[in-house]
Amino acid sequence: MIRKYTFGNPMETDAVVHKIEKETGEVPFMGVGADQLAFTYKMDDNTRIYGLGENVRGINKRGWRYISNCSDDPNHREEKNSLYAAHNFIIIEGKERFGLFFDYPGMLTFDLGYTSSNDVSIIPAEDGLDLYIIEGESIKDIVKQFRRMIGRSYIAPKWAFGYGQSRWSYMDEDEIREVVKEHRDAGIPLDSVYMDIDYMERYKDFTINENAFPEFPKFVEELKEQNIHLVPIIDAGVKIEEGYDVYEEGVEKGYFCKEEDGTDFVAAVWPGKVHFPDMLNPDARKWFGQKYKLLLDQGIEGFWNDMNEPAIFYSEKHLDEVFEQLEDFKGKNIDLDLYYKFNSLVGGISNNPDDYKRFYHKFHGETVRHDKVHNLFGYNMTRAAGEAFEEMEPDKRILMFSRSSYVGMHRYGGIWTGDNLSWWSHLLLNIRMMPSLNMVGILYTGADIGGFGADTTEDLMMRWLEFGIFTPLFRNHSAMGTRCQEVYRFENIDAFKNIIGIRYGLLPYIYSEYMKAALKDEMYFRPLAFDYPEDDFAARVEDQLLIGDGLMTAPVYEQNAKGRYVYLPEKLKMVKMKSLTERSVELLDQGHHYVDIDLDETVIFIRPNHVIPMSSGGQSVAEVDFGSLELLGYVEDKAVYELYDDDGYGKDYENSDHYTTITVSQDGTVTAKGIIERRYTLSI
Ligand code: GLC
Fold it and tell me: How far is the CA of 641 from the centre of ligand 1 (A)?
């Protein structure tokens, strides 16, 4: 049951698609502050809190203060309060169980037992929000009701479930050819290569640097013949430059964000000075979305949207002010006080909170200052693309994922989790973030595998991939200036080939589970607590996840570890894999185990009466044969598996032709019912 309460005059964010009548009575569960709008709740000692999507810290969010304020901050350290997204959905599980969604586009603080360990208080920067309270028979049920209300999750093309290689930046055609060749020569599967900002002509959106890519459409085609998709980045800021059509059109039509005096707001990002398209204005959004056609027409089938918090290196006006104030420091003895002032003046230039108050949107016909709707910007940039794709390519899926997001964006694209670092703790953060992202409908997601900033190591890369093979977005990405981390650069190339190969082997399972989660508003990644609600210990586990219906993963995320402790909420079958074919199997009882896991080993745990359909792999998704499957099973009585397969591009998702029901009986007999004939072999 969902109840909606309205406070003040909220702005319509379009997060919710299935509208709910608002209630007028008292808000249940929560205290509501009288003077300043604030929502409070008293926890008991065992209360847990789940949610908040892309965020720092654990799966159970209790014990910290989180602030929804989409931020371009590459230091995802524990003391941070905000990352790139605003996902204002939590579930409180304790003496009472209920979900809360705060549909509010400005800054919102969640104090979840930080100021006082048993107190929750949630405070918006200003009045005007819709609060949804969701009750359900289980955590999963609450998530499902919420997800139904906010609409179906984005579905990526099937090729985008393959392995992607990225780096900031591959500078020209030859460098990309080399990356592809190295993978193919070593037999490492690969489906995509990402193009970072240097493919553009001086960082101008929707342009191609013709010196580096002289015959771009031909190059796109050449790679497609090898089953490789090129995925270019699109940035939020449009370069200010006479003669650049996107800039000139935007100025002429009045589609850029404005200053208070009506002039176009000038910020700076990669190209230097830019204007921001007013993504909140439907006309501007439509115009910006249509621009993707310039690349679609050249054979491109996927994009990633970046810097859309939006990131601001500096604003023209603020920089002028800083230069002026710096004059005061000249010739002075810079002592302790002055040194701090100096530092904060110079260090506070980028993403300065005051800059977010300097520009305005045309939103639902009104002029609205940016900070009041800040968290909607990235969402609406991706919506611009998603709506345009729907118009331009109604029958074809286009890959799209974004850095910044708000609830509702999950209908138009996925996200990657931004600029992490090559730290073991960020591998753990990746593991913990996945289920909370699924709670808000973001299913197509993954981190920069191996870490974006800082130098990676071979062992970190390997362990990260062993988890990454389960994330729908499966991409190795790193920053300019860091150690190169294409997997063929390391010593044990065969181990990398095998680990990535396991992903392609598991693809029939990963794809089926993804599609079912998207189509039924369910979660692909879940904490143990969600499936084993009666198990007190399962509720404490923060480093193991359930993936789809039949699998549990317990990744290794520590340097030099040769294994780890694993908690089994029931008897499970452990399968250790060094490659698709080199496997060992052991049945483990419910309880705690120490499991040895070699550096080059991937471990999965199969739940009772489940089978995992596996292919024999391939060098690209196109080569994976969903028609000939091996079933990796743990069948005590009977296992029934719902396999989903389609052409990977079309949008007739609901067509029952896509499903095959596979039944495995106790004696190992396999029957399959579906429209499409398939061959099966059963092993284990
Ligand atoms: C941002 C993105 C990163 C990208 C870089 C250059 O930092 O998060 O992924 O490589 O910009 O475009």
Answer: 40
